[in-house]
TrEMBL record:
<keyword id="KW-0547">Nucleotide-binding</keyword>
<keyword id="KW-0119">Carbohydrate metabolism</keyword>
<dbReference type="InterPro" id="IPR029044">
    <property type="entry name" value="Nucleotide-diphossugar_trans"/>
</dbReference>
<dbReference type="GO" id="GO:0008878">
    <property type="term" value="F:glucose-1-phosphate adenylyltransferase activity"/>
</dbReference>
<dbReference type="InterPro" id="IPR011004">
    <property type="entry name" value="Trimer_LpxA-like_sf"/>
</dbReference>
<dbReference type="InterPro" id="IPR011831">
    <property type="entry name" value="ADP-Glc_PPase"/>
</dbReference>
<keyword id="KW-0067">ATP-binding</keyword>
<dbReference type="InterPro" id="IPR005836">
    <property type="entry name" value="ADP_Glu_pyroP_CS"/>
</dbReference>
<keyword id="KW-0321">Glycogen metabolism</keyword>
<keyword id="KW-0548">Nucleotidyltransferase</keyword>
<dbReference type="GO" id="GO:0005978">
    <property type="term" value="P:glycogen biosynthetic process"/>
</dbReference>
<dbReference type="Pfam" id="PF25247">
    <property type="entry name" value="LbH_GLGC"/>
</dbReference>
<dbReference type="GO" id="GO:0005524">
    <property type="term" value="F:ATP binding"/>
</dbReference>
<dbReference type="Pfam" id="PF00483">
    <property type="entry name" value="NTP_transferase"/>
</dbReference>
<comment type="similarity">
    <text>Belongs to the bacterial/plant glucose-1-phosphate adenylyltransferase family.</text>
</comment>
<protein>
    <recommendedName>
        <fullName>Glucose-1-phosphate adenylyltransferase</fullName>
        <ecNumber>2.7.7.27</ecNumber>
    </recommendedName>
</protein>
<feature type="domain" description="Nucleotidyl transferase">
    <location>
        <begin position="8"/>
        <end position="273"/>
    </location>
</feature>
Length: 427
């Protein structure tokens, strides 16, 4: 059996403009997911479950909260030598610029990888939802004697419009690449070969292979592939590698979702509360790791809860909540009605003295006030929503835009972090 010492590199992304305003005060990997996790916990957990415990996270925007989260969540014992570390953009004698693309970010940090003598580099995205056996991904890469392997998923012709589509031969070697072909282009020649489709029992309706933006490179292959001025993996490095190297497709058959937009982020979170969620958060063999908070149990005071995830440390009184995800330390007062709400919770509890000061200053407490109704909404952390508010109850009247304390995108209302929504507000 071949020896391996893989090093994982998680791409933290740029400014995360598609997830704004959730990325207004934090980097994309630090955005809260599932009430108690962060997006970065997903690729990190996949790595740890595979036994790959040398992990770097590359980022350059609003990285303070990401630093705090990773430093407090991921502590390996001194004998394993494992780590999860952030590599933020930095000025050096050889470079004074920020990261200018995914490949550029990996290249500028390459000297930090060498002390760990990696046999392979595993490049992962920081904003995708999946549970992949990365150990199997690496094993297949080695078995096929590939220089580069790309994780792929089968998609329909319609879904192929906005993805990078890979053409393979009957053995799974990638021979061509097409970035976002759109609806009008004839891509029938990119379809999965019949022999390969039958071998893996692929549904004919999902007859195209899309890149998941996750790669394995042999050590020397990555370093030689970046010995140039190419800036982006998907647009430059991978197409160049396909023409010049042995690049193989790794077929992933599980659930995968790119959660880089507000709509996909919202839908992926709300789906977690459904009867049969697409993403399994209760797999004891492949747990999802995050920071331990040591909070008290959630308390329900005469409330009705339907298809909802509610995280620890919350207090909910005489309220009706359905198809929602409620984050840690969420305070929900009497007679509140929530449906389709992603509430990220709070970073702290308010004392009685602070609540008295809030009342004197005419501002709501952190959480949701009494007799408030909210539908199809993301409530970012530490938001203060007053009494008798009605939010999202008339979706046909919503118009995308920035309204200071909140933003509307795709008929989804996003209440900003630390926002104050006064009593009797109608949105």
């Amino acid at each position: 059996m071949q020896q391996h010492n893989p090093l994982a590199i998680i791409l933290g992304g740029g400014q995360g403009s598609r997830l704004y305003p959730l990325t207004e005060q934090r980097s994309k990997p630090a955005v809260t997911f599932g009430g108690k996790y962060r997006l970065v916990d997903i690729p990190i957990s996949n790595c740890i479950n595979a036994g790959f415990n040398h992990i770097f996270v590359l980022t350059q925007f609003n990285s303070a909260s990401l630093h705090t989260h990773i430093n407090s969540a991921y502590k390996f014992d001194q004998f394993s030598g494992g780590f999860v570390e952030i590599l933020a953009a930095e000025q050096t004698p050889s470079s004074t610029s920020w990261f200018n693309g995914t490949a550029d970010a990996v290249r500028k940090n390459i000297t930090h990888y060498h002390p760990f003598n990696p046999s392979h580099y595993i490049i992962l995205s920081g904003d995708q939802l999946y549970q992949m056996d990365l150990k199997d991904f690496l094993a297949r890469h080695q078995e096929q004697q590939a220089e580069v392997s790309i994780a792929t998923t089968c998609v329909t012709r319609e879904a192929a419009n906005e993805l990078g589509i890979l053409k393979i031969d009957e053995h799974g070697q990638i021979i061509d690449f097409l970035e976002k072909p759109g609806a009008d282009k004839d891509i029938s020649d990119m379809a999965i070969p019949e022999a390969y489709r039958q071998k893996y029992n692929i549904d004919p309706a999902h007859n195209y292979l899309a890149s998941m933006g996750m790669y394995i490179f042999n050590r020397g292959t990555l370093e030689s592939s970046l010995d140039n001025e190419m800036l982006d993996f998907g647009k430059e490095v991978i197409p160049h590698a396909i023409k010049n190297l042995k690049v193989n497709a790794y077929l992933y058959r599980g659930y995968w979702e790119d959660i880089g937009t507000i709509k996909s982020f919202y839908e992926a979170n709300i789906n977690l509360a459904s009867n049969l969620p697409s993403f399994n958060m209760y797999d004891s063999l492949n747990p999802l790791y995050t920071r331990m908070l040591n909070l008290g149990p959630t308390k329900f005071n005469n409330s009705e809860i339907i298809n909802t995830l509610i995280c620890e440390g919350s207090i909910i009184s005489q309220s009706h909540i359905e198809q929602s995800v409620i984050g840690v330390r969420s305070m929900i007062a009497d007679h509140v009605h929530l449906s389709g709400v992603l509430m990220m919770g709070a970073d702290f509890y308010e004392t009685e003295e602070q609540k008295s000061a809030n009342q004197k200053n005419g501002i709501p407490n952190v959480g949701i006030g009494s007799n408030t109704q909210i539908h199809r909404c993301i409530i970012d952390k530490n938001a203060r929503i007053g009494n008798n508010c009605k939010i999202g109850l008339s979706p046909n009247s919503l118009k995308d835009g920035d309204y200071n304390a909140y933003i509307i995108r795709d008929n989804i209302i996003i209440i900003r972090k630390n926002a104050v929504i006064a009593d009797n507000t109608l949105i």
